[in-house]
């Protein structure tokens, strides 16, 4: 379970999210403004070069094509966004599973004889601090994570495996600690995979961008509205599409950008293991 009071009180170094989110907001506004300006210019020149009253005769044919292309594009954008949102949620839950299993392993190892008990607690706290202070900033920046975390986890696994168990209770606690460490390893692998492999591929980006451009261009084939009204419609469509693409761009890395899952789980673990 997540202990929110513990999370708020933990002193482990936090990610400077304030400036990051300001940059994200400014970047999003820039994307929307540029797309809206581009859409407005296209709509203006199409109406200026063509008939002032618009291309009314194209409405029926353009409507069929626009419905197909815009519909397929909307489905693709929705699918990508939902997939990214699910990935962010899974990464957040996975970080808590990893931290919870780490704490559970340390608590189970407390029943083992010395020096294994104390050493297991020290290594568990060290692992949580490495994840929060070193790995999290690297994952947020998209950099390669060092092997120090794996090394610390392997040390902890060896300490538990080599610890003597003198009765059935200690045998049970040793088995429990080993099982929890196996869960930590699995959750860690999933976290590193999510940090390094969650980006939208180049081919999919090409489809998203080309589909967005075609959708905006096709909207200029409709006629019947006044020039100002038509420009406003195309401008709004361009701005909304740009906003959705910006959301996709920001959600690619669950530990950076707009998602930016924090190391709260491991801050909680450090606090519990003091």
UniProtKB/TrEMBL annotation:
One family name in Pfam for this protein: Bestrophin-like
InterPro entries documented for this protein: DUF4239
Key words of the record: Membrane, Transmembrane, Transmembrane helix
Top-rank taxon, per record: Bacteria
Transmembrane stretches, start-end: 24-45, 65-85, 202-222, 229-249
Designated name of the protein: DUF4239 domain-containing protein
